[in-house]
Design goal:
Layout lengths: L1 H41 L25 H19 L3 H12 L5 H6 L14 E4 L6 E4 L4 H13 L15 H10 L8 H11 L3 H8 L16 E4 L6 H7 L4 H8 L11 E5 L3
Antiparallel strand pairs: 1-2, 3-4
Helix pairs in contact: 2-3, 2-5, 2-8, 3-7, 6-7
Length: about 280
């Protein structure tokens, strides 16, 4: 009887250990999966803003849900800081960022944190290659989108052709918009109007007023009359080149023209600006 009890106790002890080890294996497996998922997500291309000086990291961008208002929320403070340091209107910086990056959803922005389309030139940092005026052109790549904003400030302040802009009032966004095109920043004749339209539609001028500690002007935005603009595809055109030329995005061109991919043909008529 004592022997039977002894074997029963041994059996129960072995069973308990066995259950405990199985439970431990399951827990380890779950932890391992969680760690792998975090590592993969932390290296995705859409993780635009990483922490600087202990600041929290912004969540990854979902292109379907990310709006212009979200972009302004994320980068208004950055544009205001650049204005304090370099005297470039925050409204202009934000409007250019929205326009050049496709509201933060452009391919170059998502892959390289490049919000202003600045090419490599004498750049010694990381690079991204993208079709622009030519195939596979070199663009600057940044670890953090805020470095792209700083590079934009340096780009304007360090080139003599933009010197006249800094003689304007810091809240003269209309003068800045027209002056940028005059100085050669963009060839699109409608570039100033596009910047002014964005500034007034989203009241970006309020950020200039905040930096300058002035009352924010109260303008009423009056949208332009809807009007479609079309473009006839020429030999050598790519969808990205056409988008860049007209300061829009490949995604917008695809949406306006019901394109499932980036294939286009010579003679094809594309809607550049929709009257929708």
């Amino acid at each position: 009887m004592r022997i039977n009890r002894f074997f029963v106790l041994i059996f129960l002890a072995a069973f308990a250990v066995s259950c405990g080890s199985k439970k431990k294996v399951v827990t380890t497996k779950k932890d391992s999966n969680r760690e792998n998922t975090f590592t993969e997500s932390s290296n995705t291309a859409i993780e635009r803003v990483k922490p600087l000086d202990g600041e929290p990291m912004l969540p990854p961008v979902n292109p379907r849900l990310y709006t212009v208002e979200d972009y302004i929320r994320d980068f208004a403070a950055v544009a205001m800081e650049e204005m304090r340091l370099y005297n470039i209107p925050a409204s202009i910086t934000l409007a250019q960022g929205i326009l050049e990056s496709g509201g933060g959803k452009g391919d170059l922005t998502m892959r390289a944190n490049n919000h202003f389309g600045i090419k490599c030139h004498d750049w010694k940092g990381a690079r991204a290659y993208h079709d622009d005026d030519a195939r596979g052109e070199c663009f600057r790549k940044y670890k953090d989108a805020r470095y792209s904003y700083r590079d934009h400030s340096l780009f304007l302040t360090e080139r003599k052709r933009y010197a006249e802009l800094f003689e304007l009032d810091e809240d003269d966004y209309k003068g800045w918009a027209r002056g940028l095109r005059k100085a050669g920043y963009a060839t699109d004749r409608r570039y100033p109007d596009k910047l002014i339209s964005l500034i007034e539609r989203y009241r970006l001028y309020q950020f200039d007023a905040d930096v300058l500690k002035r009352p924010s002007p109260s303008y009423t935005y009056t949208p332009e009359s809807p009007e479609s603009v079309t473009y006839k595809v020429k030999k050598g055109d790519t969808l990205y080149r056409i988008a860049k030329q007209h300061n829009t995005t490949v995604e917008e061109l695809q949406r306006f023209n019901n394109l499932r991919d980036t294939n286009i043909s010579v003679g094809q008529m594309l809607v550049i600006i929709s009257a929708e």
